[in-house]
Amino acid sequence: QLQLVESGGGLVQPGGSLRLSCVVSGRIGDDYYTIGWFRQAPGKEREGVACITLGDGTNYADSVKGRFTISRDSGKNTVYLQIDNLVPEDTAVYYCAASDVPIVLVNPPEAYAYWGQGTQVTVSS
After folding, report:
1. Angle at Cα 76 formed by Cα 71 and Cα 82, nearest 5°?
2. pLDDT tens, 20-49?
3. Separation of alpha carbons 25 and 92, rounded Å
4. Are the beta carbons of 5 and 117 closer than 8 angstroms?
């Protein structure tokens, strides 16, 4: 069973930065294909914000382009989400997820089969 573990969340002031990490237990291309980052704010639906494909292609939701950067360290089996210039609207639980099919889009969440437990990001002064 593929496992994903997120970390790096916390309380940050507006304008600050965070780097979230997602450690994946499986083998890219064998056990999973695309890794996506999602977030869910209270009372809102889960939305995809970024994904990185088997070939290291990346896609972002329009709402986060220019502030979010997804990257991978294959040697550490880790996918990162760098978030810059944080705003209160970024407050949410952030999840990473893995697809078991070779998709290239960050949405919909239903396309991803495996999920981590989430890490809370709170942006407040």
Report:
1. 30
2. 999 999 787 788 889 999 999 999 999 999
3. 24
4. yes
